[in-house]
Amino acid sequence: MNISVIVPLKNEEESLPELAAWIARVMDEHHFTYEVWMVDDGSTDDSWAVIQQLAAQNPHIKGIKFQRNYGKSAALNEGFNAAQGDVVITMDADLQDSPDEIPELYRMIVEEKFDLVSGWKKKRYDNAFTKNLPSKLYNYTTTRMSGVKLHDMNCGLKAYRKKVVKSIEVYGEMHRYIPVIAKWNGFRKIGEKVVEHRARKYGVTKFGLERFINGFLDLATIMFIGKFGKRPMHLFGALGSLSFFVGFVIAAYLALAKIFFDKVNMTDRPLFYFGLLCMIIGSQLFLTGFIGELVTRNATERNSYLVEERMDHTNNVTEDELQLAYRREHRR
Fold first, then answer.
1. Torsion sign over Cα 135, 137, 138, 140
2. Quick check: 240 and 284 in contact, CB under 8 A?
3. Could you report the per-residue pLDDT of 96-107, keeping only the tens digit for each?
4. What distance in Å separates the CA atoms of residue 28 and residue 99, rounded to the nearest whole number?
5. CA dist., res. 228 & res. 238, Å (int)
6. Best CA proximity match to 125, nearest among 190, 75, 200
7. Contacts of 117 (CB under 8 A, 6+ apart)
8. CA 249, CA 88: separation in Å to the nearest integer?
9. Whole-prediction pTM value?
10. 8 Å CB contact between 145 and 216
11. How far apart are CA 4 and CA 86, in angstroms?
């Protein structure tokens, strides 16, 4: 199969028939073999009934329905698990992403050997104050912190090599940082393509202002897990040792001043309490790192690493198949 298209959605019953027809037309014109996974993230309208009707008319359309709303990251993760195409395309269901971009995205993955290609909505039709300006700030901050140079990190229109989506896991609201997650998993050939952004035709946006706070917290989580996920002691142990050392030096200074210089009322000085605080915090940070190491050492995936290639003449099983088998077994 050439392409898997994943469409996460919530309350998009009006746009789904038009989107499905548009995707089918593009696929037929370019003779792609394909599947379309529409993931209903707890819709309260008739979106699932529309998906069932579309699937009955077109066998390439498949559906997943959540019992309640879990968020876009969960919908994408389920779509990634189900996808079978060599190239995986994600797009939003609101018709703001154009399926006409699919052939070029596919070509960039297959011919130019990109691991991931992100869309760049250079010209946007969103509100300049509530969406465009915060988006530029968000993209600038993420680029500076992660080193992934993309103009539009959160664009819903993206293309992935199959191995990428089978090697990553997204949850919470981390769909905004999939390129960063991919980079931390060793997929470094990440590009972008200017894509058409269309004005919303039906419905309203499903994201509010809380996405900015949650987005910052998720970025901090990804940066920590990427660097210290398998070695938490390197962070907490270092910080704890440094803090404890500062407190110990302060305590030693006060003790020497008391013994050799007959200083009095040492416990009334703010420096005494600052030193004591540093030693307490240092001990807590060190214990946090120690407990983190214990948890990591006993985790089921403590020795799970992404292997790009392996020479094995005993059988013909590919590394991709081994990774898929491992993930299925782990989920059980």
1. positive
2. yes
3. 899 999 999 999
4. 12
5. 12
6. 200
7. 105, 108, 109, 158, 159, 160, 190, 191, 192, 193
8. 57
9. 0.70
10. no
11. 8
